[in-house]
Amino acid sequence: MYSVALFGQRVIQRFSYFSSFPRFLCNRQSDADGTGNGFGRIEDYLNESWKSMNFDNNMKDKSEIQESVDFIGINGCYEGHHSRQIFSSRHNFIEKVRNEASMILEILQQDGPGFDAKEALDNSHITVSSLLVREVLLGILRTINYANKNRCAKLGYKFFVWSGQQEKYQHTANSYHLIMKIFAESEEFKAMWRLVDEMIEKGYPTTARTFNLLICTCGEAGLARNVVERFIKSKTFNYRPFRHSFNAILHSLLGVNQYRLIEWVYQQMLVEGHLPDILTYNILLCSKYRLGKLDQFHRLLDEMGQSGFSPDFHTFNILLHVLGKGDKPLAAVNLLNHMKEVGCEPSILHFTTLIDGLSRAGNLDACKYFFEELIRQGCVPDVVCYTVMITGHVVAGELDKAQELFTDMIANGQLPNVFTYNAMIRGLSMAEKFDEACMMVKEMELRGCNPNFMVYSTLVSYLKNAGKLSKAHEVIRHMVDKGQYIHLVPKFKRYRRC
Question: Where do the PPR repeat units fall (predicted)?
């Protein structure tokens, strides 16, 4: 069996015996400034591959689908010419629900002195369904901002209580999650806990979605440990795609950077008699690295091998991330070769992870080498990989090289995204080519790639530093016209959006 212990000792070292590997790649350059380049954290790519396991995260509630089926009268026997009638009936039903939801939202908006929204809802004679509740709560969720958050929370809960009292209707777990999300946006933490208690009391399963809502909201409010402890002790916590609920908890904690809490949960997991699997190990490797505990990182690799687990696609990605950030290109070459030997062909994600790390370490020569290497090995650079390279050149002050890559990217059919444009606008601004930078903002808009606040703020910042205040104010006015003014207000929210 392949020894991960031996492997762990090898990959973190520099391998001087690679005489054919260019020596200049080992020379460190000035550190990058950590500017975002659109390449997600290593945790994001771990989470991305496991999203499909989170069945209750984005799916509509089964009862919502069943209601539309029951309303239309579909029983599985319709064929041929009936299909058009079925589609039309379903479309009409959905439109009816949306119209009723709009009517309810208008009623709720009038709530206040002299107007009883509950009485108006009673008199509306609208039949409540899961689809209707979902539409109304989503409507409230979309309108929440810092100024109206308290009112939105009250109106959302008033409707939630009223709808739950209607005949022939019972709230679903998704309904609870939506009102919890409204409370999360409104920073009503205690109200969220009361809803969880109510769910448990009424026998609803508290799933990973429930946990995610709480941990994302309460994690930055200092309540993360309380959330985890309650879910570990809860006998109603159910998450089917994972072997056990501990992995679901670890997975959620990874997304909100609760690395120390991951360590604690892992110990609780062992106490409960649950053995780690490859998913557990990958999460733990991430947390150990983020906490700077490299000695424990190595020991974990050893333990992983002793437990009979070989590195998978994501383990290799984590290791390449570590080697890149540690500016160890020689070890990265060895690791890429080893991946091929064990049948894990390096992908564009693996190369981009490595290049991103090396770029942040300031080793642009190594970035160029691996960019050329990935092409030689048959990988096609995507927009993310190009953006990482462009950002690296911009940070190093090599605008000409960045522009060359930008041109090649478009020629190769990869359309720039907002991060690519932001990197280029930053580079042009650094070179005080403000007319070209403003032209690029217009080009973004023409291509349908809407500039975000970062794009505008980058340009405005450099314009102000160059003393071009009138031009900076012009960009700000354009930013306001495009609806980016909300970002000029300080962010008061204390929680991380899920």
Answer: 172-206, 277-311, 312-346, 347-381, 382-416, 417-451, 452-486
* Burial tier of 129 (Cβ tally within 10 Å: 0-12, 13-18, 19+): buried
Give φ, ψ of 112 to 5 degrees: 160, -170
Residues 385/346, Cβ–Cβ less than 8 Å: no
Burial of 453 from C-beta contacts in 10 A (0-12 / 13-18 / 19+): middle
Question: For residue 206, what are the β-bridge partners?
Answer: 237
**Structure token digits, residue 457:** 């703020």
Let me know how long the chain is: 498
The alpha carbon of 439 is separated from its chain's Cα centroid by a whole number of angstroms, namely 31
Distance CA 185, CA 189 (A): 10
Rounded CA-CA distance 138/152 in Å is 11
Residue 125 burial (CB count, 10 A): 6
- pTM value? 0.68
Residue 475 near residue 459, CB atoms below 8 Å: yes
pLDDT digits (tens, 9 = 90+) for 210-231: 877 887 776 655 667 777 777 7
Tell me the two tokens of residue 220: 């930055």
Residue 101: how many other CB atoms lie within 10 Å: 20
Helices (H), 291-398: 294-306, 313-325, 329-341, 348-361, 364-376, 383-395
Instruction: Say how far apart CA 245 and CA 248 lie, in whole Å.
Output: 5
Structure tokens given for 345: 């062909």
Q: Which residue has the tokens 């899920």?
A: 498
Residue 237 is classified by DSSP as B
Sign of CA dihedral 157, 161, 166, 169: positive
- For 115, phi then psi, to 5°, come to -140, 120
Long-range contacts, stretch 14-21, CB < 8 angstroms, 24+ apart: 14/328, 14/330, 14/331, 15/330, 15/331, 15/333, 15/334, 16/330, 18/330, 18/333, 18/334, 21/329, 21/330, 21/333
Q: What is the pLDDT of residues 108-139, one digit of tens each?
A: 999 989 898 999 999 998 999 999 999 999 99
